[in-house]
């Protein structure tokens, strides 16, 4: 019984963490693209 209890206590948080990491990965890629584009726009303008 103790094995199944420990399995239930640790597998659920690990599954939630994995799910969130997979979901956030796409958003981080989009954020990276946006920051790269912003850097190009700022570098292309004369700031004086």
From TrEMBL:
Organism domain of life: Bacteria
**Pfam family membership, one:** YvrJ
Cite the InterPro entries for this sequence: YvrJ (IPR024419)
Name of protein: YvrJ protein family protein
Species this chain originates from: Carboxydothermus ferrireducens DSM 11255
